[in-house]
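User: Please fill in residues for this 191-position structure.
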């Protein structure tokens, strides 16, 4: 397969394969699900690519020489100042049609406080949310999140028997639409 490098960046490379396929090579990443009763731990942070603040599970790139589990422990400590017993629950490719990034999804249990600090470039707010409310808010666009966060929340709902609460909430009359415009609208694009 012919491989042409079109761009090399800090975390992504853009390639053209066989003079046809545009592919983004991206480092693998991790995200960590932490549950406490009916609550789930996430972080709010600005995402310049979308032009909005998102709510996502603690996550980040795997550093060279790290295993996915080591990266999950580091990211959990850096973003939430927690440590815990980590179990791999899934792994998915972000967008296999054009991107090589694989995300390893872990669950942290029996968490305890630890030391850790977000990277200087990160503007992170730790936010505990009700699991069902979070799922419903994502569904209607009140919360912007990542696909791997959505998958982990689906796993959490199915393993904590809270799907019934989701179905009950979906029967409630709709609330106001999200007040924050989508990332496309903020950039002046038409959806």
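Assistant: Residues filled in for all 191 positions:
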């Amino acid at each position: 397969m012919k491989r042409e490098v079109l761009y090399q960046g800090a975390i992504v490379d853009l390639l053209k394969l066989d003079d046809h396929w545009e592919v983004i090579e991206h480092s693998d990443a991790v995200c960590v699900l932490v549950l406490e009763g009916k609550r789930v731990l996430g972080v709010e942070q600005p995402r310049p690519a979308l032009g909005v603040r998102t709510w996502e599970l603690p996550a980040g790139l795997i550093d060279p020489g790290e295993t996915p589990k080591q990266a999950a422990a580091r990211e959990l400590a850096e973003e939430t100042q927690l440590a815990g017993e980590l179990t791999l629950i899934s792994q998915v490719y972000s967008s296999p049609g054009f991107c090589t990034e694989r995300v390893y999804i872990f669950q942290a249990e029996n968490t305890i406080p630890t030391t850790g600090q977000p990277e200087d470039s990160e503007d992170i707010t730790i936010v505990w949310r009700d699991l069902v409310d979070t799922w419903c808010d994502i569904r209607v666009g009140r919360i912007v999140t990542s696909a791997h966060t959505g998958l982990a929340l689906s796993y959490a709902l199915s393993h904590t028997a809270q799907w019934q609460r989701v179905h009950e909430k979906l029967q409630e009359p709709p609330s106001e639409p999200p007040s924050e415009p989508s990332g496309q609208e903020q950039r002046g694009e038409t959806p």
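For context: Residues 184-191 have pLDDT under 50 and may be disordered.
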